[in-house]
Amino acid sequence: MQHIAFALPNEEIALILKERLGSYGVLTTDIASIGPIHNLLFYDIHGLLLEATWPS
Which of 18, 32, 34, 48 makes a 20 to 30 Å CA pair with 11? Predict the structure, then answer.
């Protein structure tokens, strides 16, 4: 398995997630655009790559 992706409803929620992850010391990528979606990537505590996506 390469990674697990999950959908967020909007960028406001994504920014809250990014801030919360950062408060726990979890590094995330910058927000990127891939066609009709934005995303950010981070690793869970077991080293599994996770992707959060939301509509552009």
Answer: 48
pTM (predicted TM-score): 0.89
Judge contact between 51 and 4, C-beta under 8 A.
yes
CA dihedral (36, 6, 26, 19) in degrees, to 10, reads: 60
Q: How many CB atoms lie within 10 A of CB 54?
A: 19
Residue 20, Cβ density class (10 Å: 0-12 exposed, 13-18 middle, ≥19 buried): exposed
DSSP per residue, 1-49: ---EEEE-S-HHHHHHHHHHHHHTT--BPPPEEETTEEEEEEE-TTS-E
As a whole number of angstroms, the distance between CA 2 and CA 49 comes to 7
Q: Is the per-residue pLDDT at 1 higher than 90?
A: no
